[in-house]
Write a structure and sequence with these properties.
Chain lengths: 298, 270
C-alpha cells in the first residue's frame, strides 16, 4: 500500500521534473553560453568525464554576454516593448468587445444560457490556426471586407489591412474573445438580481445601477479575463506571423526566427528567459486575483 | 435576471456575428469552384476530392491523430494522479514545487515550452519524431487535465472514500469503485481537452517534431504561409464539422445526465 502511495506522487512528479523543470534549467544554462559552429551549436558543453575540473571550466565559461547583446541591439528591446503594447491594447479591445456580450448573456432568459455558452465555447474548441487563417481571406486587399466596403461605397480603393498591426489586433481579439467572455459571464451570472431591484426601488436609474452595482461586482471576472488574454497574447507567435507584416515586432516571432532561421540558440534562450521575467509579474497578480475570489466564495 | 434591453440584443447579435461570420465564410468558400478563394465561381466539391488525394495531408493527419490519442491518454492518467495527490494528500516533501510545476505550464508561452523541450531532447540525444511530440504534448496537457479533475475532486465529499476504506476496501478499490465513477465526467472532459489541445498545437510540435514526423497544424501552417488555398478551406470545414458535432453531442449528453441525476435525486427524496 505504501509503495502504491509513493508511486502516485513519484510518477507525475518525476515526469514534470524531467520534462518541465530540467528543460527550463537547460534553457537558462544555454542562455549563458556562447554560440558556436558545432553540433549542438553552442559552447561550452558539460564534459562529465573530466570530473571536477570539467565542471569548473564549464562554469567559468558561462557569462551574461547574450543578455548584454540583447540590450545593445535595438531589435530586441523594441520587440519587447511592441509586444507589450500589442498585448495591452488588444486586451483592452477584447474587454470592450467581450463585456457587452457577457452582459447580454447573463441577462438572457435562463433557458437560452446553455446554448449561448455553447456558442462561445465552440470556437474555442475549433482549431486556433484555422480561426486565424479565416481572417487572411477576409482582410486581404481583394478580401471580403474590402469587397464589402467597396460595395456599400464607404471606400473608393481597397484598404491595406492584412500584414499590418491592425490585422494582428483583430486576430488577437477574435481568437481570445472566449477567454474574456467566460470569466465575466461567470461573475455576472452569480450577481444577485435583487440588488439591482433594490437600487432601482431606491431611485437609481438603470444606468446608474449598472455603474454602481453590476460593474464593481463583475470586477474579479474582468480581471481574470484580462489576464487570460494578456498573458498568452504577449508571447503569441501564430497571429503575428500569419496576419502581421514586416513592421510587426513581437517577441514570440523574434524568438522563433532567432532559433530556426539564425540558429542562434544562446540568444534565443536569453530572449526566452527575459520574456518569462516579464511575464512573472502578471502571472503572480493573476494567481492572487484568483485566490482572493476563491476565498470570497469559500 | 431581467428582460433583455435593446442594447443587450444588439451586443449579442453583433458579438456572435463577429465570432461566427469568419468561420461561415471559410466553410462556404470551401465549396467554391474557383482556385481564387475570394471570388465565387459556382458550387463544387472538387477541393474535398483533391484533399483526399493529397498524401502529405493524409499522412500528417494520421500522425496528428496518433500523437493526440497517445498524449491525451497518457496525460489523463498522469493528470488525474497529480490532481488526486494535490487534493487528497496533505503535505509532502516538495509539494510547493509540485503544484508550481502543475500550474506553470498553463501560463508558459508556447515558444518557451517548445524551445526548452527541444533543447532537452537534443542534450539527451533523443531523435525527434512522433515520440518526442507525444512527450511534449503529454507534459503540457497533463497540467490542464489535472486542473479540470482537481476542480471536481474538491467539490465531492471525502467521507465517501473514508467510508469505503472503513468498510475494508483497499485504497485502490476505494479509488476504482467510489472516486473514479464520481469524477469520471471530469476525467472524460480532461481527456477531450487534452486531445483537442494536442490536435491544435502548432508551436510546440514545430519545435519537437523532427523531419520524420509532420503534424497537420505544421502542414497547414507551412501551406498557409504561401497564401490562402481552397484545399485548406476544405480541410478547415471538415475540422469545424467534427468539432461542432463533438461539442453539441457532449453538451446534450451532459444535459441528459443532469436531468437524470435530478430525477434520481427527486426519487430518493420521495
Amino acid at each position: 500500500m505504501n509503495i502504491g502511495r509513493k508511486l502516485l506522487v513519484a510518477v507525475p512528479y518525476a515526469w514534470l521534473l524531467v520534462l518541465f523543470l530540467i528543460p527550463f534549467l537547460i534553457v537558462l544554462k544555454i542562455s549563458l553560453s556562447d554560440v558556436a559552429l558545432s553540433i549542438p551549436p553552442y559552447t561550452p558543453t558539460l564534459d562529465l568525464s573530466a570530473g571536477w575540473e570539467g565542471i569548473r571550466t564549464f562554469f567559468s565559461e558561462l557569462d551574461f554576454e547574450n543578455y548584454v547583446f540583447l540590450t545593445t541591439d535595438d531589435l530586441y528591446w523594441k520587440s519587447y516593448l511592441s509586444s507589450l503594447q500589442i498585448a495591452l491594447i488588444s486586451t483592452f479591445i477584447t474587454l470592450l468587445v467581450g463585456f457587452p456580450i457577457a452582459y447580454g448573456m447573463a441577462r438572457a432568459p435562463e433557458e437560452w444560457r446553455p446554448t449561448l455558452m455553447m456558442l462561445v465555447i465552440l470556437p474555442f474548441w475549433t482549431s486556433f490556426l484555422i480561426r486565424v487563417y479565416a481572417w487572411i481571406g477576409i482582410l486581404s486587399t481583394e478580401g471580403f471586407l474590402n469587397q464589402f466596403l467597396l460595395w456599400i461605397g464607404l471606400i473608393d480603393a481597397p484598404l491595406t489591412i492584412l500584414n499590418t498591426n491592425t490585422a494582428v489586433y483583430i486576430g488577437i481579439v477574435y481568437t481570445y474573445l472566449p477567454f474574456m467572455i467566460l470569466p465575466i459571464y461567470a461573475a455576472l451570472e452569480k450577481l444577485d438580481g435583487s440588488l439591482l431591484e433594490a437600487a432601482e426601488d431606491l431611485g437609481c436609474s438603470r444606468t446608474t445601477a449598472f455603474w454602481l452595482i453590476t460593474l464593481p461586482l463583475s470586477r474579479p471576472g474582468v480581471i481574470a479575463g484580462c489576464f487570460l488574454v494578456f498573458i498568452p497574447a504577449l508571447g503569441e507567435f501564430v497571429i503575428p506571423s500569419l496576419l502581421g507584416g514586416s513592421e510587426t515586432l513581437m517577441i514570440g516571432k523574434v524568438l522563433w526566427e532567432e532559433f530556426f532561421s539564425n540558429r542562434d540558440w544562446p540568444v534565443a534562450s536569453a530572449v526566452a528567459i527575459i520574456l518569462l521575467l516579464i511575464l512573472i509579474i502578471p502571472i503572480i497578480m493573476f494567481q492572487r486575483n484568483q485566490q482572493i475570489s476563491r476565498e470570497r466564495e469559500g | 435576471m431581467r428582460r433583455l434591453s435593446g442594447f443587450n440584443i444588439v451586443s449579442l447579435t453583433l458579438g456572435f456575428a463577429f465570432l461566427y461570420i469568419p468561420m461561415v465564410i471559410l466553410v462556404i468558400y470551401s465549396f467554391n469552384e474557383s482556385k481564387l478563394v475570394t471570388v465565387w465561381a459556382g458550387f463544387s466539391t472538387k477541393w474535398y476530392g483533391e484533399l483526399l488525394q493529397n498524401e502529405a495531408f493524409l499522412d500528417a493527419a494520421w500522425v496528428t491523430l496518433k500523437v493526440a490519442f497517445f498524449s491525451s491518454t497518457l496525460a489523463t492518467v498522469l493528470g488525474t494522479m497529480a490532481a488526486y495527490v494535490l487534493v487528497r494528500r496533505g503535505r509532502f516533501m516538495g509539494r510547493t514545487l509540485f503544484s508550481g510545476m502543475i500550474y506553470a505550464p498553463l501560463v508558459m508561452p508556447e515558444v518557451i515550452t517548445g524551445l526548452s523541450l527541444l533543447l532537452l531532447f537534443i542534450s539527451i540525444g533523443l531523435d525527434r519524431g512522433v515520440l518526442t511530440i507525444v512527450l511534449a504534448h503529454t507534459t503540457f496537457a497533463m497540467c490542464y487535465v489535472s486542473v479540470v479533475v482537481s476542480s471536481r475532486l474538491v467539490t465531492f465529499d471525502e467521507s465517501l472514500e473514508e467510508a469505503a476504506l472503513d468498510l475494508g476496501a483497499s485504497p485502490w478499490e476505494a479509488f476504482r469503485l467510489v472516486t473514479l465513477p464520481i469524477i469520471a465526467p471530469a476525467v472524460v472532459s480532461g481527456w477531450l481537452l487534452a486531445f483537442t489541445l494536442s490536435l491544435d498545437d502548432l508551436v510546440i510540435a514545430s519545435f519537437t517534431a523532427g523531419p520524420s514526423a509532420t503534424t497537420l497544424p505544421i502542414k497547414i501552417f507551412s501551406s498557409v504561409r504561401l497564401g490562402v488555398s481552397p484545399e485548406i478551406n476544405a480541410l478547415s470545414t471538415i475540422i469545424i464539422a467534427i468539432v461542432t458535432v463533438g461539442v453539441i453531442s457532449a453538451s446534450l449528453i451532459s444535459k441528459h445526465q443532469i436531468t437524470k441525476r435530478e430525477r434520481e435525486e427527486r426519487m430518493a427524496m420521495v
